[in-house]
Design goal:
The complex is a heterotrimer of chains A (285), B (296) and C (409). Chain A is built from 14 helices and no strands. Chain A has 285 residues and is mainly alpha-helical. Chain A has 2 domains: 2-56, no CATH class; 67-281, MetI-like (MetI-like fold), CATH 1.10.3720.10. Chain B starts with a helix and ends with a helix. Chain B contains 13 helices and no strands. With 296 residues, chain B is mainly α. Helices cover 73% and strands 0% of the residues of chain B. Chain C has 10 helices and 21 strands. In chain C, strands 6-7-8-3-9-10 form a 6-stranded mixed β-sheet, with helices on both faces. The longest helix of chain C is centred in the first third of the chain and has 22 residues, at 2-23. The termini of chain C are far apart. The relative contact order of chain C is 0.12. The chains are: A mainly alpha (285), B mainly alpha (296), C alpha+beta (409). Chains A and B meet through helix 1, helix 2, helix 3, helix 4 and helix 5 of A and helix 1, helix 3, helix 4, helix 5 and helix 6 of B. Chain B: Its main location: membrane.
């Protein structure tokens, strides 16, 4: 916003207009190439099922139709509902715990906090293949395989590193004097967290919840290992609908689009927070 | 005494999370290691010590070795491609361009959708069907007169197969890398850039001498993040073509050998090797990040 | 106009009410008993500080940055642990109490206003944390808001306030608590110069009115001198001198205090005492009668305030012929800077004190010779480069031991 006004006042070289034109042309070309999959997805999903054939993939539909969505929705719907039931609590609880951890690690650094933090961070990067076997064993013991509860639990736990990191990065930027002041005013740790730190941390909360919601929604591996047909999350359901080569591809496309709507909505509506989550995931560059 | 009263509540507050991470990350890693050193086959868990047998077996297992080669190709194509295009996009957007928000939104949106959905779209785009059934990119190439570009994509009989999957992965992540670079470039203060301009550097030279050196940490972050993603990627490849050995990586082999072949100890050994590979890039990265933050 | 006076009357009434409430409480003093602080990593920030603040007193802790004054204040607040020694507030030993258990209020340099709370919420927060009933809370917040002229801002967020207003909210948050002790950590340093001066006066008034024991930290010696009933000078975690501003100015106990207090700084020169007189740069100044230095000769560091130099007249006072190098005009007076043909005094103590005031005015003058500043009336004719005679007041000389920096008396 400010940058555009600056550009207009800056003294520019003779070649600048050409450079800008070329830059726009290149960008538009890249956007077009980049959006090819989206084009295919949209035109296929919206064609009248009778008109669909692989050879006409690139043609625009003669008439728009949402029939395909209607066809795939009944098979996708249970997974969709499971994912909502799983991703919402998983992301909210994980964020709440992350807020507490992040606050303590940034502003109430107990002795040893410097060692604990990198250990937590490592949890963010482990390949989940390496915990699948013990996870299935333990959760089977706890009777948490086959339903949603186990899936929710692991999404909460494996979300902790990133939510902790998001909140810690956020709390590090607020002034120590604010925390000191709350203590002198008579607040202990818990009340400082609740009355002073958390109200300021709403943006971090948005970042953490969005990030966690997106990764829980998009997860496939845990769903595959921990759930049974009734409790499949949407990704597993989608893969089963669209997996075989025999599935008509307009149905595959429509299902993929439907399954992506919640996260796409979040992305479009809350893009700013989504970006910040991405940046946090990269630690500090 | 004061110490306990001061830190006590804090320790209690984080204790549940620490215990959970302790068990579910470190406990499980140890448990997995133990499985990898056992002779567990079949549904019932057995933990009889088998030494390095499973690892030795993997060393002679062509399916595993092919997988390693595949993941190397995948990593190289994916990391290099994503890095180059991500940088290019950032460079194009860097000096406040009209509609920047739109471009950013477009390039980043695949981050919001699942690898499964990504794979489904790309599987159809990269179909190798021919004749009347020809579709996807091959069809597009044919109809615009670029028929010679048509190929077998991920069904190809060469490393091109796994490289095609890397293209889909790159499509999903290039926006992320662009955003990282953009943040890095914007992080350089305007004063610094302006100082360089006043000192007589052209815009391009100012970029090269002032901004480029400061992007090294971004490049490092990007490489580490991309490399570790490529080592653990499972769903994209699984949904693309689960049955194809041409694109199978150890991350998938682990799954098949464990949950379909019921060779738990072998699966655990593969997983342990994956952890080692990832730790090799991630541990120095975390160490470096935490240390440089402490210096600040 | 009438509105203004009625407002003023209301504020006065509110202040009276608050004063009455505070009068019901016995003011408490603070006693620091051989307090030390070691940080992890071996840095010792505070060494054996013993200091008593009388009930109702206004004491200023002053020193260059890094001298430990803020750490000391935070120890009184309970924000830093005490490594050894005891801290008493009133009769109570609070050494191991958490901040929320001590009855102190603190004003921070950044004001530390809670961004998501209104001004009302900010001022009332301490009362809320101490579970003061809602109605009483509202009454007290209104009272304090009136005293500080914040009534019309009560529903704003801190972000919508000016620097001065934020400062007053921070003050209000401390006052409303009616604590035993006020602690203030450089509360004026984020204000611009003019506002700082007026807030300084208001702080003095407020303290007179409320009579609450106050410990105030600053690095600015002018602020310390104008605010403090007593001033405690700290250097490297060691208490140097605690005294009234007058006594600090006229009877500094060592080189550091002498150099730190006063603006412009005291002038120093290496000199020799011999046969009842002190001499440097070819000038002999007879010692005042009865000076213990009179017998025997020795080397000393001689100090004299810029105000003890004047234009020489014919009254026979010892005089120095100098060539002004820089003249700084301040309107009704001027600082004349010149160098003296004697070795420069460059000890850790003087450097530490002068650096703190960021006065590098000596840079352009030869570094191996002593530089003096004289504070003369603006009517004095002075021309740069033209020699003039300067008289020294023999009654206002300070002598320091060159080895220890201690004052010689």
């Amino acid at each position: 916003m400010t940058t555009t006004s600056e550009t207009s006042t800056r003294i520019r070289s003779r070649w600048a207009p050409y450079v800008t034109t070329v830059r726009y042309l290149v960008l538009f070309a890249l956007v077009c190439v980049f959006l090819i999959p989206v084009y295919v997805l949209l035109v296929t999903a919206m064609k009248d099922p009778a008109q669909v054939s692989p050879s006409r993939m690139w043609n625009l539909p003669d008439s728009f139709s949402v029939d395909t969505f209607g066809e795939v929705w009944p098979t996708l719907e249970p997974g969709f509902r499971n994912s909502v039931l799983m991703a919402l609590p998983a992301s909210i609880i994980s964020s709440l715990l992350g807020a507490a951890n992040g606050f303590v690690l940034a502003k109430w650094r107990f002795p040893g906090a410097d060692v604990v933090f990198p250990l937590i961070l490592f949890g963010m990067f482990i390949p989940y293949q390496a915990i699948l076997i013990p996870m299935r064993e333990l959760l089977t013991d706890w009777n948490m395989v086959g339903g949603l509860s186990g899936l929710i639990l692991v999404h909460i736990i494996y979300g902790l590193p990133i939510t902790t990191l998001i909140f810690r990065s956020y709390f590090v930027t607020i002034s120590d004097e604010l925390i000191d002041s709350a203590q002198v005013d008579g607040a202990g740790m818990i009340r400082t967290l609740v009355f002073v730190a958390l109200p300021i941390a709403l943006p971090a909360f948005a970042v953490a919840v969005i990030w966690q919601f997106t990764s829980a929604w998009n997860d496939f591996l845990f769903g595959l290992v921990l759930t049974s047909t009734d409790s499949w999350p949407v990704t597993v359901a989608l893969n089963n609908i669209a997996g075989g080569q025999v599935v008509p591809f307009h149905e595959a496309m429509a299902a993929a689009l439907l399954a992506s709507i919640p996260t796409l909505l979040v992305y479009v509506l809350m893009g700013r927070f989504f970006m910040r989550g991405l940046m946090a995931g990269a630690l500090k560059g | 005494m004061l110490r306990i009263r001061k830190w006590g509540p804090a320790a209690l507050l984080v204790a549940p999370s620490l215990v959970a991470i302790g068990v579910f990350v470190y406990g499980f890693l140890g448990w997995n290691l133990r499985v990898s050193l056992s002779d567990w086959r079949g549904l019932r868990a057995t933990y009889d010590f088998a030494g390095l047998d499973n690892y030795r077996r993997l060393a002679g297992d062509t399916r595993f070795i092919d997988g390693v080669q595949n993941v190397v190709v995948f990593t190289v194509v994916f990391v290099a491609g994503t890095l180059i295009f991500g940088f290019l996009l950032a460079l194009l957007l860097e000096r406040g361009i009209r509609g920047e928000a739109f471009f950013r939104t477009v390039f980043l949106f695949p981050m919001a959708i699942s690898f499964i959905a990504t794979a489904i779209i790309w599987r159809w785009l990269m179909s190798n069907a021919s004749g009347a059934q020809e579709t996807g990119l091959n069809k597009l190439f044919d109809s615009v007169g670029l028929g010679f570009l048509a190929n077998d994509w991920f069904k190809a009989d060469s490393y091109w197969a796994v490289a095609s999957v890397a293209i889909a992965a790159g499509w999903a992540l290039v926006g992320y890398i662009m955003a990282l670079f953009l943040a890095g470039m914007r992080g350089v203060s305007d004063d610094l850039r302006e100082a360089a301009r006043v000192d007589g550097a052209s815009e391009a030279k100012a970029f090269w001498h002032v901004i480029r050196p400061m992007l090294l940490p971004v490049v490092m972050s990007a490489i580490v993040i991309l490399a570790h993603i490529s080592l653990k990627t499972f769903d994209l490849i699984y949904a693309m073509d689960a049955k194809s050995r041409k694109i199978e990586t150890p991350a998938l082999y682990m799954w098949f050998t464990t949950f379909e072949g019921l060779n738990f100890s072998i699966g655990a050994a593969i997983a342990t090797l994956l952890v080692l590979g990832i730790a090799l890039v991630i541990v120095p990265y975390i160490w470096y990040s935490v240390r440089s933050e402490r210096r600040r | 106009m009438s509105e203004k006076t009625s407002e003023g009357r209301a504020a006065a009434a509110a202040a009276d009410a608050l004063t009455a409430e505070l009068a019901g409480r016995e003011p408490a003093g603070v006693r620091l008993d051989q307090v030390s602080k070691h940080f992890r990593g071996g840095v010792q920030a505070i060494r054996d500080v013993t200091l008593t603040v009388a009930p109702g007193e206004f004491v200023v802790l002053v020193g260059p940055s890094g001298c430990g004054k803020s750490t000391l204040l935070r120890m009184i607040a309970g924000l830093e642990e005490v490594s050894s020694g005891r801290i008493h507030i009133g009769d109570k030993d609070v050494t191991t109490q958490l901040p929320q258990q001590r009855d102190v209020a603190m004003v921070f340099q950044s004001y530390a206003l809670y961004p998501r709370m209104t001004v009302r919420g900010n001022i009332g927060f301490g009362l809320r944390m101490r579970r003061v009933p809602k109605e009483e809370r509202a009454r007290r917040v209104d009272e304090v808001a009136q005293i500080l002229g914040l009534e019309h801002l009560l529903d704003r967020r801190p972000a919508a306030l000016s620097g001065g207003q934020r400062q007053r909210v921070a003050m209000g948050r401390a006052i409303v608590r009616e604590p035993q002790i006020f602690l203030m950590d450089e509360p004026l340093s984020n204000l611009d110069a003019k506002l700082r001066v007026s807030m300084r006066a208001q702080l003095t008034l407020l303290h007179k009115r409320l009579g609450v024991t106050t410990v105030y930290v600053t690095h600015d010696q002018t602020e310390a001198m104008t605010l403090g009933q007593r001033v405690a000078v700290l250097r490297d975690g060691v208490l140097q001198q605690v005294d009234t501003p007058q006594a600090l100015f006229h009877h500094p106990v060592n080189l550091f205090v002498a150099a730190f207090i006063g603006s412009p700084s005291m002038n120093f020169v290496h000199a020799t005492v011999d046969a009842g007189a002190v001499s440097f740069a070819g000038v002999r100044i007879p010692l005042p009668p009865g000076s213990p230095l009179a017998d025997g000769g020795r080397r000393v560091i001689l100090g004299m305030r810029p105000t003890s130099l004047s234009v020489a007249s014919e009254d026979g006072a010892p005089r120095l012929t100098v060539t002004p190098a820089i003249v700084e005009d301040l309107g009704d007076e001027r600082f004349v800077i010149f160098d003296v043909d004697a070795p420069r005094v460059d000890t850790d103590a003087t450097r530490a004190a002068v650096d703190a005031q960021a006065e590098d005015d000596a840079l352009l003058v030869p570094l191996d010779r002593a530089t003096f500043t004289a504070r003369l009336p603006a009517t004095t004719p002075v021309t740069v480069g033209e020699p003039m005679a300067v008289a020294i007041d023999p009654a206002r000389l300070h002598f320091f031991d060159p080895a220890t920096g201690e004052v010689l008396q």
